[in-house]
Amino acid sequence: MPPFRFPLERVLEHRAVQLAAEKLKLQELRKDLAGMVEELEQVRVERASARRLVEEPGHGTGSDLKALAAYLLRCKKKEREILGRQQELGRRIGHQLDCVLKARQNHHLLEKLRQRRLEQWTYESNRETERVASEAYLARWVRQ
After folding, report:
1. Domain parsing of the chain, residue ranges
2. What is the pLDDT of residue 60?
3. What does 39-106 look like in DSSP terms, one character per residue?
4. What pTM was computed for the model?
5. Angle at the Cα of 60 from the Cα atoms of 57 and 62, rounded to 5 degrees
6. Predicted confidence (pLDDT) per residue in 11-46, tens digit
């Protein structure tokens, strides 16, 4: 009997590569999100530090306080911008999760098909081996 050969092996390999690529994209998006969380935390720390300076009496002149107030406004604006980017990235991560799940399903379906075909081939191979062995036994028994 010929060795097992799955006719869709190349498609299965392609699906495995697609799944790995989709997982990599998701990993990159999550890495970007972690960077944004860090950036947001840094802006919040800087803003809190600047706010403490403003609240302490006797620090700086009117122009210093005006500059600090402008800085606080920029920090708040930057914080809102980062939060907006995080929301957009969250949507992209959700979409990418869907892509990963779809790629995983496509790969899994072909894996199951391959497994069924291998089981069928093994069954047929075992039947063929058993048939040949019984024929050989009968041929030997008839000669005696």
Report:
1. 21-143
2. 64
3. HHHHHHHHHHHHHHHHHSTT-S-HHHHHHHHHHHHHHHHHHHHHHHHHHHHHHHHHHHHHHHHHHHHH
4. 0.76
5. 100
6. 999 999 999 999 999 999 999 999 999 999 999 999
